[in-house]
Design goal:
alpha/beta, Rossmann fold, Elongation Factor Tu (Ef-tu), domain 3, 2 domains, 6-stranded parallel sheet, 6-stranded antiparallel β-barrel, 32% helix, elongated
């Protein structure tokens, strides 16, 4: 897969059919649209292309309104590469890009990327102040001779699948099973391991503390069964998101006890995949009560399968 970070400076030689959107999370609706793009490109002897943003537009337009993200760009690239997309372009949304009119956006796509067709979601908008919509895109297609394919919305259990819906399912409900169905994969967080209070070692449950990127969504506070990828191996884990009320930490942390693991990995990167929510975070009167509960959580995790390959 050819990966570009181009704001209309490059020129492509091949004809392209282009999927347009933000594609945060690459959920089941996004993946259906992308597979449609690949099929249309293949049938027209052209290249399939995804054009999206390396940063959310609201981080430039109004940072306070920018949503927490579901997926980092590295993971997005890997998924798109694995599914067979030919070209990925990640626009850098900045003040200059923000000023591009809807008409000029389309003209640039044709001029620079030989666009022969655009595949978009039912509510796609584009150009300065989002003034471009499906109707304008179809009108421009008559003028410039490209195809417009609109993909219908996708529902899961009667609910419209969207990135914003999935964010709510993760952050408000903590329903990681439902989120994984909508995403077609388990939600994950990637980060570097930092030193904590080391209390877990004293009670027989040493944990790793994740220093994560604050621009990404967090699951609702509580205890989760997780899978942990480290050094190309996957382990079972128990992850707590919260404030550790029993030990009065009062600071949000992501702590994971990894089963059958005894390495010191400070400064190294891990990925934590959230499989299922086990329980709420609880304040215990004594550390002995906490240990009893942690053993119950550990026994639960032992019985689960490793879901990540």
């Amino acid at each position: 897969m050819l990966v570009l970070r181009d704001n209309f400076n490059e020129y492509l030689n091949d004809d392209t059919y282009i999927a347009l959107g933000s594609f945060d999370g690459l959920h089941m609706g996004h993946m259906g649209l992308i597979k449609e793009t690949m099929g249309i490109a293949r049938s027209n002897n052209a290249k399939s292309m995804v054009c999206t943003f390396s940063n959310h537009p609201l981080t430039v337009i109004n940072k306070e309104l920018a949503p927490k993200l579901l997926m980092d760009n590295e993971t997005k690239e890997k998924i798109l590469n694995d599914c067979g997309i030919d070209i990925l372009n990640m626009f850098q949304f900045n003040k200059d890009f923000m000023k591009i009119s809807a008409d000029d956006f389309v003209i640039n796509m044709i001029r620079h990327y030989n666009a022969k067709g655009f595949i978009v979601g039912f509510n796609y908008r584009f150009g300065y102040k989002n003034l471009g919509d499906i109707d304008l895109l179809k009108k421009l297609s008559l003028k410039y001779g490209f195809k417009v394919i609109t993909v219908d919305p996708v529902k899961y259990n009667g609910e419209l699948v969207s990135s914003s819906k999935i964010r709510n399912v993760i952050s408000e409900d903590g329903d990681m099973i439902k989120a994984s169905k909508m995403l077609t994969r388990h939600f994950s967080l990637k980060g570097i391991i930092i030193s904590g209070k080391k209390l877990g070692r004293k009670i027989g449950f040493p944990t790793i503390n994740l220093d994560y990127d604050k621009t990404y969504i967090l699951p609702r506070g509580g205890v989760y069964y997780t899978n942990v990828r480290y050094d190309n191996k996957v382990y079972k884990g128990i992850t707590n998101i919260g404030y550790n009320p029993t030990t009065y930490d009062y600071k949000l942390s992501i702590e994971t006890y990894i089963l059958d693991f005894n390495k010191y990995i400070y400064g190294e990167e891990v990925t934590i995949y959230f499989i299922n929510r086990i329980r709420d975070e609880v304040k215990f009167d004594t550390l002995d009560e906490l240990v009893i509960q942690l053993n119950e959580d550990k026994n639960y995790a032992k019985k689960q399968n490793i879901d990540i390959i």
